[in-house]
Request: fold
Amino acid sequence: MPDVKLVDLTKTFAKGRIVAVDHVNLRVYDKEYLTLLGPSGCGKTTILRMIAGLVEPDEGEIYIGDKLVTGLPPEDRDIGYVFQQYALFPHMDVWDNVTYGPTVKAWEEEKRERIGREMLEMVRLYERFDAIPQELSGGMMQRVALARALAAGAKLLLLDEPLGALDAKIRFELRYELRKLVKDLELTAIHVTHDQGEAMAISDRIAVMKKGKILQVGTPQELYMNPQHIFVANFIGENNFLEGHVVKVDEKGVGIELRGGLLVHGHDKTKGEGERVALAIRPETFTVEKGRKKKRNSMFGVVERVRYEGTNVRYEIRLENEDVIVVVRPSLTEEWLNTGDVVTVSFPSEKSYVFTYPSHGLREELSVG
Amino acid sequence: MGALHNRKPIAQTVMFAVLASLGIFVLLPTFYLISFTLTKWTEIYQDVFINPLIGDTNWQQILRYLALSFRLALVTVVLDFLFGIPLAYFLARKHFFGKPLLEDIVTLSLVIPTSGFGVATLLTWEIVEPSYVIPFINVPFLVLIVHVALTFPYIVRTLQAKLEDLEPVFEQASRTLGGSAFTTFRKIIFPLSLPALFSGGVLAFARSLGETGATMVVASIHTTAPMAIVRWVFEFKLATASLLGFILIITATVAILSVEFLMQRGGAFKTPKFLLTFKIEDKILKGEKFLSGRPRWIKDVASLGAVVVVVILPIIVVLTSVGSYWSADPDTGKFQGSVLYQLFGPPSYFNTLMRATLTSVLVATVSTYIAACIAIPSVYLIERYRFGRTLRYLLRIPLIVPTSALGLSVLLLWGPGGLKLAMPGIWLIILTHIVFSVPVVVEPTIAAYEGSEIPMFEGAARTLGATPYDAIETVSLPMLERGILAGVILSFTHSLGETGATFLVMGSDVTVPPLVVNMVEALAIPAALFASAYLIALSLLLLFLFRMVVKR
Reply:
């Protein structure tokens, strides 16, 4: 039963000048749906390819089940791989594509036929069995690619941005189909994507990566509610970042003086007095009221911009210290504010995060480029 | 707005001019022999089949020489595939330090002067009896080696280009699904590169069929069909020569057209099911798995080794032999058998060689220039118009037709026996060389055009205000530059080394490659050695230039 273990996995390119994967340790549990999430170039696809055996690591080991597979060619690792560009063999029809795995593994004809049929029916493309890939739409091709990877019988499924090349609507529908399929078949799945919405929707756990390192692994909820790294706080969901330094430490957390002398309270016990910090508050955590009313953890500001987004209204508010924050409020249950309104924003201290201010600067640390 | 009115007629005139040039300078000479043979059929028939003196001996000879040439070509292609496929794969997929060098060696045998290479091979394999014939397949050993050396690049290059184009993702997909390396090759790579393999194979086959220069040097007592044509022209047996040339040209045309037709229909897609799965599939799979486990470098080393032995070794031998033959015959010690004696002594081959070099360079320059002027606009015709596809196929034929048949065709068309446009001499040589130089420039240019996205970029230039001509000049030509340059250098080098056709049309304006053949026949071996080494060194230099230019 495949769980996957990565031990100290490292891969460099250009004679060591580019470190794609930097001593990564990860454990993927049997039957878990884990997503490797991160911006382009963070190393997630390289890791996937190393697990598949398409790329050899420079250092470290990979275990599938309890078997050490580093050094084994892909055909001996018993995996299923779904490529971003589908990679359906253009000279074969759907049926031959899907039954390719069983064919090269020399399964008996009866078993081959049965699996081929099952898989195609599972992705609801059985009637198109004699179509060639060029005749299919993107979504269909992806389903065939999936069926093909599954038909080979492997219990570990590796997916490389499988929905990346599809239109938004299809992407949205297919993501749930994908998860359901994996769960119905009781597979272990490792899914690579840069789309955090996708990751949040279908994963049991997510590993957020940046520049070759895993920053945090956790359930979608854990990552959203409890980001341990400032990059994660920004990459998952949205966050406002306010710069300041710690002026007081008490039992409940820290008092932070923001730019312009604004004083707020943050819920963190790990920072020391005088330390420069970034305070992260999610847009939906703020409450806004017209007028100036001093409250717990409040700041005054002026509404600069109002944008309607269907379920929500998005406000850009310029605080008295010139920092601009984004506040998101439900559109149907509250009265709207208008541009130019003077307002009081406040937030509960427990729902904010305090991070050490990044040494290379906030913009650099948060960048995805 | 006024400019718009002028454009169409100018474009049309240009198009007609280009088509006319192609027709007159390239296609007409290529096919003239066919019409000649058909119009003079009764005379030819009488002479060949019911000759009053010798009955149908001529026809029997034709058949015999054809049989040898076909056998030779077939075995050559088989060996080409055997060594060429691993080499092509190696070059396409692996990146290593000496890669450009290896690629240059492959290119080298495409452009190396054939008669010079023949001399080099003859010298290298001195231990083998020149007339030795390999049993079972009945082909002369030396001729086979030379043919393999001269034709394997066609297979390696077409396959390498296709493999580099082929996304590695298909092979990777096959591997993740459980296919071993050999299985992946059989079921995925091979079917997808079938068009390339076909074209490469047909080109190699036809090249072997038409190979004249090197064969003339190493064939000893054997005669291939192209050699026979040359001999018969000099013996004034024009009827027999024409018939043989006619047969060879028809064969080349049919081969090319049928391959292209096949390519059209099936293409690479929907490989018929029976080709993908066999009844004994299980056993095959097991065997492939076994083979894949064995050290794969063995086949790479074998291919590389073959290349070294067949191409590099002779070159090294001939270049060093000039040194050992320089002042005396190494076997007898006699001064008369030395290079110095033959070049500067009574035979005074040096002057002949210098004159021939001048002729060769002049011919190559003029014919390449004219060919490029015709070829570049032709590429546009081919890409823009529907008839372009047919045109492209037709243009492949001059490359495949045996050069001596081509020479005969030109001789009969433009020469004293025909329109009397030119006597055998430098202008006739130039006219002949244009025939195959145009296709040589066209192909790499088309490859560059199709590999780029020129129509898109031209469109972008046009939306920014460029006229069609501007767009071509400032956008497309620079993008095509490398392809054009590659074609030009290839054409120049090829023209320098051409033997078979030149032999028939040169009269007294000798170029270097036929001179080498003459030297060998006159048994002036040291002089032949020098001339061959000199020719080969020249083509190495040109290749170096080519590499410098393309590297940019």
About this structure: Chain B is about 80% helix and 0% strand. The interface with chain A takes residues 167, 169-170, 172-181, 183, 187-188, 191-192, 268-271, 273, 276-277, 281-282, 285-286 of chain B (CB under 8 Å). Residues 202 and 322 of chain B are 37 Å apart (CA to CA). The first strand of chain B starts at residue 133 and ends at 134.
